[in-house]
Design a protein that fits this description.
This is Glucosamine-6-phosphate deaminase. This protein folds into 2 domains: about 170 residues, Glucose-6-phosphate isomerase like protein, domain 1 (Rossmann fold, 3-Layer(aba) Sandwich); about 140 residues, Glucose-6-phosphate isomerase like protein, domain 1 (Rossmann fold), CATH 3.40.50.10490. It has about 350 residues and is of the alpha/beta class. Helix content is about 45%, strand content about 15%.
């Protein structure tokens, strides 16, 4: 921490996450009751509406729905409703609107419109009684408590867990893979501290970062890029490992740092070819995840191994700490990033 104590809110909220996750797990029955309503309606496919960090959580939920429920799922473009007035038939559709504040006008309008057109609507939010929660038929409270830092940390990981518990309960699961996540989150924060500090020293002066992952971990790569951009003002871009090889890899060179999310499972295994290519182009690779030790990299940040479907809940924790550390090392205050407010209102 700097002498001016910059970033104190972000640091505190990162540290709160094991307790927040534990509290959410203790309320799993509330989420199960929502899941039962979904199961009774037997949706034919799912749509997810979100912005910012919540959009990355929605991407994670898209993988969960398609893999665990075997339902097609897509991310909504809110402007098709708010700007163009599209009114598709949504009978038999599940719409999940994800918003930490529950106050974004575009997500509110999308949710209201979808409900009128026959969708089963669920609001996943950190603000009980918010306009979004009132607009939706069902609601899941992530229960992360007030978040003072502009950069979302505890609300993001809690949203991931809430979405996992919801989807798992819809398929009839009992949250077995999530049961120990509070303890594992504490282990992740403690066990990765030295590696994160070394990464801060190594990348303090870097200006161009690519973050990449596959499968469930694509959401972590997207969230890591956002955190680096909004707190450290880095030119950070996120790509799935597959998309990176389809053109953007041409921009990778010796001046590029690559944050590669590689956890045990199909997604992590698919990243090996990607990292072979970027290493050949001279990139400096930082591997993060439970499979980080299995891939070529200049530095590695370890994460305890879990079922692949819940790995993003742990992966993001050291990525948040990295963004915090780099922001402070570069002379910034991540609690007050320039030009940003806690709640962004778009239409």
């Amino acid at each position: 921490m700097t002498s001016s104590d910059g970033g104190k809110h972000m640091a505190a909220e990162i540290a709160e996450q094991p307790a927040v996750l534990g509290g959410l797990l203790a309320r799993r029955a509330e989420i199960t009751s929502v899941a039962e309503r979904v199961r009774d309606r037997r949706p034919r496919f799912a749509l997810l509406a979100a912005r910012g960090s919540s959009d990355h959580a929605a991407l994670y939920a898209k993988y969960l729905i398609e893999v665990l429920l075997q339902l097609p799922a897509g991310l909504v473009s809110p402007s098709t409703t708010t700007l163009y007035g599209a009114q598709p038939d949504l009978a038999g559709v599940l719409l999940v609107s994800v918003s930490q504040s529950g106050g974004s006008p575009d997500l509110l309008e999308v949710t209201e419109s979808a409900r009128r057109r026959g969708a089963l609507t669920i609001a996943v939010t950190n603000t009980p009684g918010s306009p979004l929660e009132q607009a939706a038929e069902l609601a899941v409270d992530i229960g992360a408590g007030t978040e003072l830092a502009v950069a979302a940390t505890k609300t993001y990981s809690a949203t991931l867990l809430a979405l996992y518990l919801l989807v798992d309960a819809v398929r009839g699961g009992r949250g077995e893979h999530a049961a120990g996540l509070a303890e594992l989150a504490a282990q992740t924060l403690d066990g990765s501290a030295a590696a994160v500090a070394e990464a801060v020293r190594r990348y303090r002066f870097v200006e161009r970062v690519i973050t990449t992952g596959r499968g469930y971990s694509a959401a972590t790569a997207a969230e890591a890029a956002l955190k680096l951009a909004e707190t450290s003002y880095l030119a950070a871009r996120a790509y799935s490992g597959a998309d990176l090889l389809h053109g953007p890899v041409a921009a990778v060179d010796e001046e590029t740092a690559v944050l590669a999310v590689t956890s045990a499972g199909h997604g992590g295994a698919a990243m090996r070819e990607v990292l072979d290519v970027v290493r050949q182009r001279g990139a400096d690779v930082l591997a993060l995840g439970s499979a980080a030790d299995t891939v070529p990299a200049a530095l590695r940040i370890p994460v305890p191994e879990t079922a692949e479907e819940v790995a993003p809940i742990l992966e993001v924790l050291p990525a948040q700490r990295l963004a915090l550390g780099l922001a402070l090392a570069r002379g910034g205050d991540p609690d007050h990033p320039r030009g940003l407010r806690k709640v962004t209102r778009t239409r």
